[in-house]
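chain below, 63 aa
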Amino acid sequence: MATEAWQKSSYCAEASNCLEVRLDAEGMAHIRESTSPGEMVTLPAAGLGAMLRAVRTGQVHGR
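prediction:
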């Protein structure tokens, strides 16, 4: 399902730093932080679930 608009969680307050996601027609998922909209990570939409599971289980560590 492709969408032109960026989407974020309903749990995210309007002024908060939130991750936003957009799926394109080519099957790619684009992820960005709302405070830095010019920088994004792009990956196949099919891999988005695996990436989110890795973050939730602590397999991915931030800076």
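The chain has one helix and four strands. The chain has a mean pLDDT of 85.
thats it, cya
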